[in-house]
Amino acid sequence: MTNYDVVTIGETMLRLTPPNFLRLGQAKSLDVEVGGSESNTAVGLGRLGAKVAWVSRLPRNPLGEIVTQTLTGYGVDTSYVQWSDRDRLGLYFYEEGPAPRGSRVIYDRAGSALSRMVPAHLPEGLFQPGRARLLHLTGITPALSESVAQTLQKAVMLAKQAGWLLSFDVNYRGKLWTTTAARMGCAPFVTTADILFMPLRDAVAIYGVAGDAETAVSQLHREFPHATIVLTLGKEGAIGCEANGGHIVRQPSFPAVGEIGRLGGGDAFTAGFLYGYLYANDNPLPNALGWGAATAAIKYTIPGDMPLIEKSEVEALLTSDGLGRRLSR
C-alpha cells in the first residue's frame, strides 16, 4: 500500500479553447486541455515531489482515459477513480480575450459522472491512519450535486477519524451557486478545516468581511479560530493567520513581466502552500506562503490549467531577488 502526503477529491474536465484569441463562434478548431481545481493542485504537488492521490468518478471511455493518463503522467495516483459505463465527462469552453474584452468560461458539465458520485463510491480502505497526511477539498465540488456534497462530508468524517489534516479552498464559482448557497454548502467543511483558503473577493462576497486584508483575515480568524486562514490577494500576494494565537504573516507576490496562463494560478498557489506547510521544519506559515506565491508565479508563465512547474524553478525564485530571470544552458 502506498502512503500519501495528500489525497484530494474532485471533478476534472476537458477544457476546449479557440486558438489565437478567437471567439467560439469563429473557431474552426479547439485546443484541448485537462483541467480541474483539485487535480491541478494534485499535479502541482506531484511536480514538487509530494505523493498525492486523486479520487473521482469518470466515464469509461476515451475521454475519461485522457484525464487519467494525463494526471498519471504528471505523477498523480489515479487508481482510486471510480468508473461509470453510462455517464459523461464534464466539459468547459474557455474563450480567452485580452483586455478590454476579457475572458469567459462556459460550462457543459451537467449530468457528469462526478456529479452522480455517492458516498458508497468512496474507497473507504484508503481512509486509514497513516495512509495520508492531509485531505484537500474545494467548494466547487459540493456545488455540483447533493449526493457529491454528502460524499465529501463522509470523506471528511473518515479523514478526521484517521487523524488526517483537512484543507479546504472555498473557490467560489458564481455559475454553480449563489453566495448564500455557497456559505451554507461550505459550512460543513470550513467549520472542520485545519487550513482554509479563499480569495479576498470570496471572503467579502460570502462571509461579509470588510476593511483591508489584515482586518479581513482577523475577522475570519475570529469566526474560524480552529483553522489557519489564507487569503489570496491577486497581484498583492497573500496573507495568512495562524490558528494558534492569530499571528498574521504577509507574503508579497513575485514580480511578473507578463502572464501567459493565469487560469489555475490559485490551484498552483494551493499546491505550493501545502507542500511548504507539510515539509516545513519550522515556521510553517511563512514557509508555506513563500512556496505558494513562488509556485503561482511560475504557473503564470505556463499555458493551460495545470502547474507544470519544476521544483528547481520554484526554489530558484525563492532564493533569488524575486525576478528569477536567468538563462539555463
Q: Care to describe what's here?
A:
This protein has a domain at about 35-60 and about 120-320: Ribokinase (UDP-N-acetylmuramoyl-L-alanine:D-glutamate ligase, 3-Layer(aba) Sandwich), CATH 3.40.1190. Helix content is about 35%, strand content about 20%. The protein contains nine helices and 15 strands. The strands form three sheets. It has a nine-stranded mixed sheet, sandwiched between helices. Strand 13 and strand 14 form a beta hairpin. The radius of gyration is 19 Å and the shape is globular.
In short:
With 329 residues, the chain is of the alpha/beta class. It has helices at 37-48, 62-73, 146-161, 179-190, 200-207, 213-223, 265-278, 284-299, 311-319; strands spanning 4-9, 13-17, 31-35, 52-55, 57-59, 76-77, 82-84, 91-95, 104-108, 132-138, 165-169, 195-199, 228-232, 238-241, 248-251. It contains 9 helices and 15 strands.
State the main characteristics.
single chain, 329 residues, alpha/beta, UDP-N-acetylmuramoyl-L-alanine:D-glutamate ligase, 9-stranded mixed sheet, 4-stranded mixed sheet, 9 helices, 15 strands, 21% strand, globular
End-to-end distance: 40 Å
Helix residue percentage: 25-40%
Report the biggest beta sheet as strand number plus sense, adding barrel if it closes: 9 strands, mixed
SSE string: EEEHEEHEEEEEHEHEHHEEEHHH
Number of DSSP E strands: 15
